[in-house]
Task: structure prediction
Amino acid sequence: MTGALYFLALLSSTMASARVGLWGQGRNGTGDWEGKRCTCDAFLPSSTFPVKDLVVIEQTAVEITHKLELEMGKLETYESKLTAYAEKIVNLTAEIERMEKNPDSYTEAHLQDVKVEIKQVEALIVELQASIQGSTTVLESLRVQVNAMVVTLTKLEKTHDKNLVLVTRREYTNIQLQLEECERRHQELFNPNIGSCAHTGIIRVSKPFVSQLNAHLNSGYKYGGWGKDSKPVHGSESMYWYAGYSSPSIVDIKLYADYKNLILRNNFQHHNLQSGWTGTGNNFIVRDNTLYYQVNNPFSMAKLNFTSMKYDYRVVPKASSRFSYSHSYSQGFDFAADESGLWVTYASEESGGRLILAKINEPSFGIEQERQTSVYKPGVTNAFMVCGVLYAVRTVDIQTEEIFYKYDTNTKRESYVSISFERFQETFANLDYNPTDQKLYMYNNGYYVNYHLWFNHTTKATDESPALLS
Result:
């Protein structure tokens, strides 16, 4: 590819020189024809292709690929070590149980041998933990580099001939896929807490992980969402979905077999909702292969099962269409899913625009466990559920969002918190938590963005105050 880049640079330079000569003959040129000299005002084009930027990206891609190969090799080593450690622990446990049942059958020397083996396993575990932490740091560093690459490539595509960036874009996509696979395997190996609610809530949100511009490759598709099925049917655990529009009308949705196909824009299903199923708003989700979303005629909750293609809707008498999120239009219902089930938030005239949280009975598609909060919905940018706790988000400044409020349905208590996180672009339309990987998925001004979450697994919350309603 370096030879091709050199040719592009040479061609670009030659074309620029040619333009200078033509400009001099036809415009502000002054000539000394006897001396065969000519002077002119030269205006070099500002759109000369920045080959240096592509060379830097190419070199970075090679470095990242090499590092990823090393990390993938480490993961294989981790897997074999974990298997060996688990076997050692099982054998030691069985041995200790036998000793407890019949202590007189073992000598002091035998006891010392068992103690040595326990110390060895402890040392191996400490060693593995250090290796895991090192890999996590490397993966986070690589993610930062990949994000920088996508920003540069997007800029080049907007300002120059896209065909010249195509080869590098393919290389970048391959790197993204390798990094995603490496992170996925790392998470599966070393995050046993997926699906667990043995914590007291969110304590930190990661930097934004930007996948790419939407499947339409158009930043004008500001409305919509993306993510994974929060309760996938068997065989669809890796499935992703995407729906993006230029207005807040839900007219179709695309399903992708896995992350690779999402990035390559290769959907295996495309459902058109315009035949009487059109919805409105942005905070829709996919759960159990079913789309949950809002419709306006009549104003109600709706669902469409992709397996049976059965459509259903429910009017919620108290819900009002007059109260929406601060940066979202026509967002009366906001659907959310977590480890404990399916939820919906809305506001009513009776509540004065304050957010109401309700559990959805999935078989009957009915409302239950309705709770009113003290949060005024038009002052909120979005909300999501984690382990039965509602988290509300608001804008701090042009780059920052803040989780500022939570309502715990388990204790029926609310509290105010301050957990800031960064947006990739200024506005976003959709923010939802997925319990299958404990990530936040944001549709941020046309870009696929996600965040890792950190939870407090060690201490009890102390900042809670009674909620308005129990």
